What does this fold into?
Amino acid sequence: MIHLKGGLGWIGGALLLTLSGCQREQARPLTVVGWGGSSQQAEEQAYFRPFSAATGIALRQDSWHGGVGVIRTKVQGGDTSWDVVEIESEDLMLGCEEKLFEPIDWAAIGGEGFVAGARHDCGVGAVLWSYLIGYDGDRFAQGGPVSWADFWNTARFPGKRGLRKTPKYTLEIALLADGVPAREVYATLRTAAGVNRAFRKLDELKPQIVWWTSISQVPDLLASREVAMSVTSPGRLVVANRTDRRHFKTSWDGNIYAVDYWAIVRHSPRKAQALQFIQYATRADSQLRFAALIPTGVTNKTAASAAPPALREETPSDPRNMTNSLALDTAFWVEYGDQLTQRFNAWVAR
Amino acid sequence: MQAALTGPRTSQIDARYRLWTLALLAPAALFLLLNFAIPILTMLWRGVSEPELISTWPRATRALRQWNGIGLPDETLVAQVGADLLSSQEAGTLSRAANRLNFAVVGSRSLIFATAAALKSNPKAITLERLINIDPRWGQRETWSALRHAAGPFTSFYLLAACDRYLDADGHIVSVPADRSVFIDVLMRTFKISVVVTILSLVLGYPVAYLLASLPEKLSNPLMLLVILPFWTSVLVRTTAWTVLLQTHGVVNKTLLALGLAHSPLPLLYNRVGVYVAMTHVLLPFMILPLFGVMKRISPEAVRAARSLGANPFTAFRKVYLRQSMPGIIAGSAVVFTLALGFYVTPALVGGGADQMLTSFIAFYINQSLNWGMAAALSLLLLGSLLAVLLAARLVVKPAEVLG
It folds into this structure.
């Protein structure tokens, strides 16, 4: 009997440990989750530290690589360790439908002050980012590529091409390179013939493609001359130009853009503070502080109009950068993502 | 009489020991059950169960299960599906049903949402004709067959899909079109990469382990540190280091060119070569450590005895040393092979398009598309084939034979 009691004691002890773990969860500070790397370092400078200084609210950081599955696991498992996450539009859409996020109190945030794509039932636009052509200016001194058609032109611009190893962005780019106008890209991709056309266009470039999986690979791929040009987000290259004295250049024609959001994870024990943080981080002055560190599009209208010219040139805030540009169609990828991912992987392995 | 006196006493002691043992094991067993067995089984369960439609459309799924699936459904079934569609829209659970149907027939997501929106104007009088007017796909057997197959409670849908198969409207198992057939290829590729990495680790790790085991401790300890050191560095960092070494204008290629061993840079990165090199490097300690543990216990006298009895060095090694180190080879290979099957980050960073392993798809379905049924089915496929391979290996190589 004594031995049994010993066993029960162990179990009791384990349970107590678990419970005390839960209690610590309650006492933890407001937790904000970003994407790590240089972008989160900039967020720390532009948002996290000034927010804590201004409000006296302690803030803890965490980072992740996206994927609404992570949030679903947390919410369904009763894990409330995260309050605010920075999240991509597809993940936000799926998660919002599944009620994995707290609805945004737009009356408190002030919806009129934001650009159209930044308002979502479950999220407030954090950054407007773009995928476009990046290349090493030293390599093409006579003038670099200016369109996706040039990206395909390996006779005029010899060298390998970097593309993200996902059907998302890649299929859109293939159609843009094949001469499909931006406004017809998704209508074309919704047909079987359109998908075939995109893959046929990709066949042309396939031997020249180097696939990357993480955006942080792109500056290295360009710097090591592994590729002559690559799909990239411009911020990374601008940062590399500043810190490593590179001469990377970008071409904006036909860029694909999307919004990343701040969202509050369902059952967050610090809902009020979370909203307060989002309010602070989406203010015009905060967003401009961030954009000065990593050039990205701002979602606050006041910030967009107040951006200095040098910054505007490097972001979607300049209308000249938005010719023939394409807004990422989240609904399309939620619906066709599984099938096209299978087909893309079958194609890429062939 | 004596036996009667001692008998109960030993069994009492035995029982007490047994109780002790159980009590000591209980926390660990409970921990394993709660944190390991139950979550994994619950996850794998999703590969064969069909919870989405049952929970969102309770009455319609009951009617769908009773339907024989021939032709198009009758009006009572149509009305029931329409009614549940509207009530789940009201309850905010329509997206679960829509996403589930979209896994089977792409485009169903928007079909379901558009139909719910159109039916809302007049929630009564839901007929097949009205549905077909909203979208002609309601007049196709594929749509209704997908509904029927998703009505649960169990399903073969995900497991078939994991084997590049599906059930057509007539209930026959057919292959998906070649341009989307991917999982069997990826499974084969995953096993091939794991086998090659295991062999490479063994070939490279065996001499190292031998050296470590035969050197005096003063020398072997610092060398052992070098083997363990990579454990303290993240896999990501080690993989990135290989990128620097193997790239077109990287250290390896520059050396080869300078030595005149190659005329133009060799493609060592973003292909299978890169995957083999980086994965072998990451997994090598898992081969060396078990080998070292076993070799340390092999007496050097045994080989010397064989030599003095006339065996040449090779025979002495093969018959005496290799035999005795076999448990280490088996343990190390099993660990490396199993870990290699689950690799994901390394092939993504140093591999090309044709080097993706199965786990990257599992991660995609878990995280990106929330198709957890598919993720579970792919996990079952991987687990099942691993068990099959281990079982086959056991039948071919009898442990007793190897050890004896």
